C-alpha cells in the first residue's frame, strides 16, 4: 500500500472517520447479513434490491433518489460497521464484490459526456468517493493485489473528474460535497502528484461557495434550514480535521462556523423541530445535531427549554437571508407562539414557490406549508409540494408560480415568473418588545407586485397580515391559508374561530377583509386537476388538511387577515 506517506493508516482512519459516511441502516448488522447471506441490498427507507438478479445501476423504475444512493455506495457504511463490530471479513468481501460490479459497468466512463448517468451524478460521485476512501482505509489489506490496484485507479479517476470545473456544480451544496470529497482524497492520496493542485482547486471553490451561500449574518441561503445545519456541520468537522494539515483554511472554516450559530437556534420552532419550509422534514433537531454547537442558547432551543440558557432575543430578522422570526417568549418553551415569515429568492436549489409565505405555531402547528414529499419529480404530489398551492402565498390566474428547474413544472397550469434573485426581499421591519412589523415584496410575477406585511402585537396575541396586490391588468387572485392537520375553522354568528377538529376546542379567531368583493373557498385533500389540502409529515407520506382560499377578480386588491390566538382554550 503506497498511496499515503504516513504508515499509520489506522490512525488516519480514526482521524477522518468523523467526515466519512457511516452506516445508513439503523440495524446495519441485520442489513449486512441480509446482503451477504441472501443477496438482498437494503437502503434505508426503500425496498431492497435482489442481487440474485442482474444489478442494474441505472434502472429508473426504482426511483432517482434510490439510484443516487445506490451509485453513491452508501451500503459500504453498513458493511464497514458490521466488519468493525464482528471482525468478520465476509462483509468486506461482499463490499469488494459489489464495487467490482460497479467498475465492470462504468470504469471506462469517466468522461463529461456521461454526467447525465446516475453513476456520475454530481453529488453521487462525491458521495461514492467518500465511501470508497473510508472502505479503502479499513479494508486495504483484504483486497487481492490486482483488485486493490484497480480500485485505487478508479479512485484517482474520480478525483480527476471532481477537479474538472466543467463537472463541478458551482455555488450549490452538491458542489460543496464534490470539493469536500476531493479534499479528502488529497489528504489520503498525498503521494499523487496532482494532490496539491486538487487541494488548491477544492479550497478555492469551497471559499467561493461559502462566500456565496452564507449571508453576513451567517445564514445559509438555500431555502431549507436543514441545509444550513448540514453545511454548517461540514464546515465544523473539516475545520477540526484540517487543523494540523491546512491551518489557514481551518481557521477560516472555524470563523464561519461561529457565525452560523445564531440562526441555527433562532430558526427552530418551540418544539425543537425544523419549520416545514423548503425541503425540510419536521424532524427533531436534537436527534441528529445534538453536538453541533457547544452553546447554552442552542441547547435551550433543541431541548425545548429543558436545559441551557434562554436566548435574549424573542424576535429577530435576518434581512439578507429573507427570514423574520417572531416569538412571544422563549420562556414559554413548547407552548410559545412562533411566526416565520419568508421573503427571499436566494438560490434555485431547494427552492419552493413560497414567496412571502407565513407559518404560525402556538403550542402546535396552526398554519403550515406542505413539507417535503421527496425528490421524485414525476410524482404529482411532489410537484404539488413545490408549487404555490402548498404554501401560504398568492396564486394568480389559477396558476402556480414557475420554478427555475423542472420540479413543479409539470403541473398543468404555470405562471411565468422572474428568475431574478433581487425580486423577492424584506423591504422594512421594526422589532420591539411588544410590537413587531415586517414588510416583504414579491416582484416575480410579470405584471404584478405583491406586498405582504406581518404585524404582531404581543400583549394581545394579535396577528395582522395585509396583502397588497397591484397590477395594470385584471387578474384572478387567491390568497391561500394552509391549516395544520387537525385544525379547522368554525363559523358562529359573526365570528370565525380556529378550532381543533377532533374536539372543536376554540384556539383562536380569524377574520378576513378585502377592498374588493371576494369569496372564501375551502379544500380538504383534493386530487382533481391540481392537488390542494395536503401535508407531508415525511417524504412519501401524506395527510389531508384544510386549505382556506380567499379569491377575488380585480386589478388591485388589499386583503387583510386578522388572527387572535388564545392563551388558554375557551
TrEMBL record:
One of its GO terms (molecular function) is lyase activity. Its main location: periplasm. SUPFAM superfamilies: Chondroitin AC/alginate lyase (SSF48230). Keywords: Lyase, Periplasm, Signal. One of its GO terms (cellular component) is periplasmic space. It is found in: Periplasm. It holds the Pfam family Hepar_II_III_N. InterPro entries: Chondroitin_lyas (IPR008929), Hepar_II_III_C (IPR012480), Hepar_II_III_N (IPR031680). The keyword Signal applies. Coiled coil: none annotated. Residues 20-291 form the Heparin-sulfate lyase N-terminal domain. This is Heparinase II/III N-terminus. It comes from Romboutsia lituseburensis DSM 797.
Amino acid at each position: 500500500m503506497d498511496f499515503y506517506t504516513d504508515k499509520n493508516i489506522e490512525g488516519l482512519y480514526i482521524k477522518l472517520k468523523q467526515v466519512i459516511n457511516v452506516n445508513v441502516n439503523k440495524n446495519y448488522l441485520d442489513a449486512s447479513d441480509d446482503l451477504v447471506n441472501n443477496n438482498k441490498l437494503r437502503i434505508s427507507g426503500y425496498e431492497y434490491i435482489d442481487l440474485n438478479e442482474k444489478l442494474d445501476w441505472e434502472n429508473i423504475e426504482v426511483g432517482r433518489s434510490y439510484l443516487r444512493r445506490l451509485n453513491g455506495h452508501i451500503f459500504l457504511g453498513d458493511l464497514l460497521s458490521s466488519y468493525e463490530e464482528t471482525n468478520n471479513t465476509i462483509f468486506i468481501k461482499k463490499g469488494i464484490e459489489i464495487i467490482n460490479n460497479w467498475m465492470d459497468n462504468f470504469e471506462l466512463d469517466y468522461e463529461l459526456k456521461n454526467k447525465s448517468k446516475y453513476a456520475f451524478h454530481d453529488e453521487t460521485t462525491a458521495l461514492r468517493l467518500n465511501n470508497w476512501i473510508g472502505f479503502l482505509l479499513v479494508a486495504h489489506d483484504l483486497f487481492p493485489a490486482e483488485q486493490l490496484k484497480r480500485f485505487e485507479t478508479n479512485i484517482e479517476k474520480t478525483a480527476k473528474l471532481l477537479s474538472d470545473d466543467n463537472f463541478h456544480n458551482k455555488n450549490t451544496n452538491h458542489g460543496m460535497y464534490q470539493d469536500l470529497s476531493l479534499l479528502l482524497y488529497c489528504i489520503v492520496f498525498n503521494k499523487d502528484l496532482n494532490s496539491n493542485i486538487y487541494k488548491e482547486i477544492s479550497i478555492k471553490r469551497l471559499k467561493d461557495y461559502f462566500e456565496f451561500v452564507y449571508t453576513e449574518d451567517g445564514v445559509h441561503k438555500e431555502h431549507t434550514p436543514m441545509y444550513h445545519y448540514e453545511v454548517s456541520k461540514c464546515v465544523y468537522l473539516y475545520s477540526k480535521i484540517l487543523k494540523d494539515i491546512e491551518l489557514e483554511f481551518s481557521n477560516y472554516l472555524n470563523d464561519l462556523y461561529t457565525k452560523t450559530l445564531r440562526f441555527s437556534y433562532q430558526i427552530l420552532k418551540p418544539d425543537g423541530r425544523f419549520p416545514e419550509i423548503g425541503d425540510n422534514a419536521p424532524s427533531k433537531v436534537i436527534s441528529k445535531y445534538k453536538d453541533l454547537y457547544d452553546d447554552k442558547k442552542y441547547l435551550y432551543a433543541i431541548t425545548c427549554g429543558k436545559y441551557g440558557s434562554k436566548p435574549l432575543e424573542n424576535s429577530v430578522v435576518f434581512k439578507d437571508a429573507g427570514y423574520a422570526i417572531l416569538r412571544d417568549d422563549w420562556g414559554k418553551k413548547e407552548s410559545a407562539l412562533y411566526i416565520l415569515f419568508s421573503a427571499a429568492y436566494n438560490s434555485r436549489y431547494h427552492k419552493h414557490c413560497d414567496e412571502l409565505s407565513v407559518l404560525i405555531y402556538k403550542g402546535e402547528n396552526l398554519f403550515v406549508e406542505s413539507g417535503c414529499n421527496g425528490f421524485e419529480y414525476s410524482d404529482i404530489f411532489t410537484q404539488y409540494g413545490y408549487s404555490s398551492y402548498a404554501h401560504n402565498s398568492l396564486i394568480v390566474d389559477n396558476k402556480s408560480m414557475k420554478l427555475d428547474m423542472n420540479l413543479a413544472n409539470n403541473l398543468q397550469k404555470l405562471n411565468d415568473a422572474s428568475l431574478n434573485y433581487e425580486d423577492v426581499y424584506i423591504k422594512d421591519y421594526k422589532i420591539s418588545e411588544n410590537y413587531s412589523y415586517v414588510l416583504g415584496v414579491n416582484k416575480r410575477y410579470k405584471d404584478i407586485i405583491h406586498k405582504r406585511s406581518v404585524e404582531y402585537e404581543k400583549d394581545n396575541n394579535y396577528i395582522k397580515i395585509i396583502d397588497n396586490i397591484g397590477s395594470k391588468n385584471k387578474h384572478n387572485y387567491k390568497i391561500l391559508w394552509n391549516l395544520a392537520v387537525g385544525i379547522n375553522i368554525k363559523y358562529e354568528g359573526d365570528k370565525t374561530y380556529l378550532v381543533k377538529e377532533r374536539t372543536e376546542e376554540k384556539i383562536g379567531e380569524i377574520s378576513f377583509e378585502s377592498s374588493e368583493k371576494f369569496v372564501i373557498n375551502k379544500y380538504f385533500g383534493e386530487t382533481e386537476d391540481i392537488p390542494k389540502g395536503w401535508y407531508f409529515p415525511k417524504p412519501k407520506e401524506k395527510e389531508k388538511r384544510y386549505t382556506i382560499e380567499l379569491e377575488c377578480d380585480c386589478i388591485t386588491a388589499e386583503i387583510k387577515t386578522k388572527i387572535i390566538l388564545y392563551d388558554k382554550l375557551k
